[in-house]
Write a structure and sequence with these properties.
single chain; mainly alpha; MetI-like fold; 11 helices; globular
């Protein structure tokens, strides 16, 4: 018994030591592969359980086999790329306006204490309203469905950016402002040379959070009257009982969302720095 335990401890220790000697990129690849393998296994188990239950067997096409087969068939079609392009355009337009509105407002909130104290309660109130709750107002206020969807995405993206930017401004050492004033910096130079470089990491962190929220909001928002986009494709697949295609679109949404988050994470890493 003790010999078996010794062999087991030795094997585990050997594996751990080998893992630690791997280059960083290989460790990341190994972790990602292991994580995705576990996810695919759980998905497969879920598919088996659905297929074996008479009450849910009609949804067996949600399993990995049919879903990935449908995805392979979609990859070469114009439909999939037009669908992705439509959704990305709406996300980018919404994110653009979220940044245009959110960063200046965040800088003002972070820099001026009086403004922050006055705006804190109404902004927190508005932030806690689901972006999708604005859907009836968006439909009434905008002439096109695309405009309404972009408005909903703006409402999803603006608050993480506002509060992330404001937090970044509040973290700036006040001595930096004193030094800049002593050197003759005006308001524009203060913004360009001191504030924006100092808050870049916080702004991109807010944008990363905003992308995640916007990507979640996009699908139900595209249930509106549009005839393109990932949300429309899911709704259409559901109505036609094309469940393998529906699951394939879900996989596409996950992949694109992951790639967008990765880009935002790279930007945060790019603008991460310390004073040591």
């Amino acid at each position: 018994m003790s010999n078996a335990m010794t062999v087991e401890k030795f094997s585990f220790g050997q594996i751990t030591a080998t893992y630690k000697k791997m280059p960083g990129w290989l460790q990341n690849f190994t972790n990602a592969t292991l994580g995705m393998t576990i996810l695919l296994f759980l998905w497969w188990v879920g598919g088996v359980l659905i297929e074996s239950n008479p009450d849910t067997e009609a949804f067996a096409a949600f399993a990995p086999g049919p879903a990935l087969s449908a995805l392979w068939g979609l990859l070469g079609t114009e439909f999939l790329w037009d669908t992705i392009t439509s959704s990305l355009e709406r996300i980018l337009f919404g994110l653009f306006w979220g940044i245009v509105i959110g960063v200046p407002v965040g800088v003002i909130l972070g820099y001026f204490l009086a403004v922050r104290q006055i705006a804190n309660m109404p902004f927190q109130f508005l932030r806690m309203i689901s972006p999708l709750a604005w859907m009836p107002i968006a439909v009434l206020a905008f002439e096109t469905w695309d405009g309404a969807i972009i408005f909903l995405i703006v409402m999803a993206t603006v608050w993480p950016i506002v509060f992330g930017t404001a937090h970044g401004v509040q973290r700036i050492d006040p001595n930096w402002f004193r030094v800049a004033r002593n050197l003759g910096a005006d308001g524009y130079q203060m913004l360009r040379r001191v504030i924006m470089p100092a808050i870049a990491q916080d702004v991109f962190a807010g944008i990363r959070l905003a992308i995640g929220v916007a990507w979640v909001v996009l699908v139900p928002a595209e249930y509106l009257g549009v005839t393109s986009g990932l949300g429309y494709a899911i709704n259409d697949a559901r109505d036609t009982l094309d469940y393998d295609k529906l699951a394939a679109i879900v996989v596409v949404i996950g992949v694109i969302g992951y790639l967008l988050d990765t880009v935002a994470a790279k930007l945060i890493k790019r603008y991460s720095w310390n004073l040591e």
